[in-house]
Amino acid sequence: MEILDKINGKSLNNIKISKLDYSGYQQKWILNLNQKKYIVNRDVVIFIKRYESIKLNKSVLQNLNDKDLYILKGLDNIGCFDKEDNILKKSKSGFWLKKIILRSEMLKKFKIISNIFNRYISIITVLSIFINIIVLIKLNFISIYSQKINFNYKEYIFFVLFAIGGILFHEMGHISASLKYGICPKGLGIGMYFMSPVFFVDVDDTWLLSKKQRILIDVAGVYFQAIYTVFITILYLVTYEKIFIYLSVLLASSILFNLNPFLKYDGYWILSDYLGVYNLNKQFSIMIKAVICRIFGVNNYLKELRTKWSNKIIYSVSAYGIISLIFYFYFTISIIMLCKNNIYALITRFNIIIMISTIIYGFFAFKSITSLYNMIRYSIIELFNN
């Protein structure tokens, strides 16, 4: 067999296996191979443990049973026997124009910041955040924010730099929380996600941690950003410069936006880890199918699913999936309407800025329609898949 000739003399000692902490009934493991991670079952783990310390020579391979051969072919398909430099790294779903600006070696230096997760410091910090919210309400920040203020170019630069500082401090939260649990992120990068430029931290290795630890890392970004917002509010109370109240409200609004669970921001990962469901945006199609079939009297899909997940998880993820589809539909329509309004404005009054924004909105409308199409397509395929 060609597969046996290819694997002859190779070994499985380059594979790392960790148990996955999730909410399913069946035990799962993470197969960590050359920057890629795969979820595997007990049979695969037993096979790897059995043969990891020996070379897979012809005499060993010829004595494998059909089940072991099936597992071996699966391992070959995911690149277990390829050279490391031929393995593609896992991409950031939904990101484009992404670029790593700080490698893991540099990020290790931020471990000292992880002391902020000390219990007593955390209590003081959370109290400060609540006080900050009360102060903003007392200041009637909405009326202040709604006032038209004309910044000069120096104030604009100042505003943008402080805003970027808040976003970077957000990412420092994810980095320091990861380091607290012994995981060093692979890098800090910048890219585009739908319509916004974003910083991101590659924390794929946090899948090796417990659910509780993953949730803390997910929350750490907004936690750090909230601390930064407190600092900005204090600057406003000291100087009474309205630019700081603008910054404070902008950063607070950004926190709420980050907690949106329907786009792949922090809220999505918090919900995913809280529920203990990996690949949440894929799993909901499977669970919706089981629930819909149950409504129409077909119980076998739901019965099979109940051997893997609890009823609470099945119905929670199904509800999330339905709301997610509605959100994406609304989100897509909103972008299309923005694009339409810009096209109308461009026809009636040509302007280079309007033209550029129309092209950008058009691109994002295309991306949003593509994402919505893929979600609906995957759901329909899953619904009619036997």
Automatic annotation (TrEMBL):
Keywords: Membrane, Transmembrane, Transmembrane helix. Coiled coil: none annotated. The chain crosses the membrane at residues 116-136, 156-175, 215-237, 244-263, 283-302, 314-337, 343-366. It comes from the Bacteria. This is Peptidase family M50. It comes from Clostridium pasteurianum DSM 525 = ATCC 6013.
